[in-house]
Amino acid sequence: MKGNPPWRWAARSAVALGVLLCFSILTDAARERWAISLFQAGVFGLAIVWAAGMIFRPWRWRGSVLLIPLGGTILWGLLQLETGSTVYRFATWNSILGWMANFVLFFVSLQVFGFFEIRRAFQKALLWFGFALSVISVIQFFTSKDKIFWIFPTQYAEQALGPFVNRDHYASFIALVLPFVLYRMLQEGRKSGAYAAMAGAMFASVIAGASRAGAILVTAEIVVLLAASLWGNNGARRAGMVNLTRIIFFAAVFTAVAGGGVLWKRFQDPNPFGGRREILQSSLSMMRDRPWTGFGLGAWPAVYPGYAVFDAGVTVNHAHNDWVEWGAEGGIPFLAMLLAVFVWSVRSALRFPWGAGVVAVFLHSLVDFPLQKPCLAALVFVLLGALAASARDRPAGCGAG
Fold first, then answer.
1. Inter-residue contact 390 to 119 (CB < 8 Å)
2. How many Cβ atoms sit within 10 Å of the Cβ of residue 290?
3. N or C: lower Cβ tally within 10 Å for the chain?
4. Angle, to 10 degrees, between the axis of helix 374-393 and the axis of helix 89-112?
5. For residue 194, is it left (φ>0), alpha (ψ between -120 and 50) or beta?
6. What is the pLDDT of residues 12-69, one digit of tens each?
7. Which residues have CB under 8 Å from 42's CB, separation 6+?
8. Is 0.85 topped by the overall pTM?
9. Integer Rg of the chain from CA
10. Burial letters 367-377, b for 16+ CB under 10 A, else e
11. What are the C-alpha distances in Å from 41 to residues 33, 34, 56, 100, 374?
């Protein structure tokens, strides 16, 4: 093999990735299987195109250590099927399809975003998409009368923000996109005011949605990324203070408009982990019973009723903690693979601050289940691919990319 993939090929693939991500995010509220199936078909179609390109016009492909644990998630599911350790083969097959899609998204992103110009253009398109969706989501939240985009009725629509019927999942989406806005604000002096306004609006949308963990995480992102800018010379510190002041101003203004009363009441809840604590207890019991093999990827909802310690009054589909759910389904080996991905993401985010959202979502997964949502998992693994590509072609410590 020789050379890198052609620039036009990479650019078209980046557009395809963007279309797939937008489709997945905008159809998140769909309860039927068609949305996920179409998305996965598009991802695997992109993989076939890349495989054909590698056969008929070979080029040197980029590697990454993350390909090992991500490939391992697929192999582990297949091993569970082969050994009969899964209690629900159909669910495990579906879960394997999801991890295969994540693997393909990471691999293609790793190849495509090796071009700095394409990576930068994709990041800019993503931040504008996130900002536009945050504005629409808040307007919808107050005016839609329990409908997604004022058209589609759905269960739990009273807390829907844009296509997300779960406030915590919306907050995770904003947490993924917000660092791009903050990073661009720090990089472009003349337009920093506009980016500060965008960041303030996105922050306020999370406050209006009343996600407690989400509010903490987006606040931490702003504090950490802006605090880092205050460690430079006098000029950098002065610019950092200006940006911090702008963010506080716009966040306060937009929060006053969007409202934060519901979030404040939720923080006053004397039992904020009510229900989730009991589900966590049950999930840990599942892990203790099968620590090495797990019950099978995707099998948590089928196994949980046998371990439930209380009646929630509704169907419980997830553990509200991705980490213990992965441990219950895949055992310690599967959990270790994803822990390795998380540790790698932390190290990468220290070099490339725009990747801080990936770390935030992994942390959010300690109290919710954002990475069980295909659209959020897809965005995470695309960004992981972009981080891996950045690490291969930028000097350490520059933070560019």
1. yes
2. 19
3. N
4. 30
5. alpha
6. 999 999 999 999 999 998 888 899 999 999 999 999 998 888 777 777 788 899 999 9
7. 16, 19, 20, 23
8. yes
9. 21
10. bbbbbbbbbbb
11. 12, 10, 22, 11, 13
